[in-house]
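Subject: sequence -> structure tokens, single chain

Hey, anyone have a minute? Need the predicted structure for the following. Not urgent.
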Amino acid sequence: MRSLPVRLDAVLVQALIPAALSFAHLHDLAAAAGQDGWKAWAYPVSVDLLLVAAWRRLRSGGSKAAGWCWFLIALTASLGANVATAGLLDLDAVPAWLRILVAGWPAVAFLGGTLLAHGSTAEPEAAPAPTPERPAVEAAPEPAPSPATPVPPALVTHARKVADDHRARTGTPIDTPTLRARLGVPLPLAEAIAAQLT
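Reply:
Had a minute. Here:
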């Protein structure tokens, strides 16, 4: 069996070098703040994992506020350690406020990781509101789209995104009433769009 050639990706190498340096800076700061042994190594792992979890939330769609909040907190911790170990801080005499921040980081990281892992990643599916019964005189049929007028391609593209998002979240194809509710279009137009999505 032939072995696959190893291909070095310059972008990956470029990403690994600063990641390793940042990892070392976080370790050095934690060790200087009194966290010795395995605990000093756990700090950079927790900061980097929180960054990854926050970035994953940002890339997954839905509500991005929590993703940005925790991404900025973890980025501040990483950047703060990089700056602190650049000679601006005497690592032999770490101030008390910094020791408090380092000692409190595990609780902050645990909270952020838990909220990112178990929080909502997308907006809940909006169910169409029930409509009260109305007298027959008030109920007017919705006008059907003219057969000569095609559905605008931009609307079909948007509907396809809505349908793909629905399938990704529920595992089932979107039905016409749900598509109609999500797009806010009349039923005949929703049916015409649904026909183009199949």
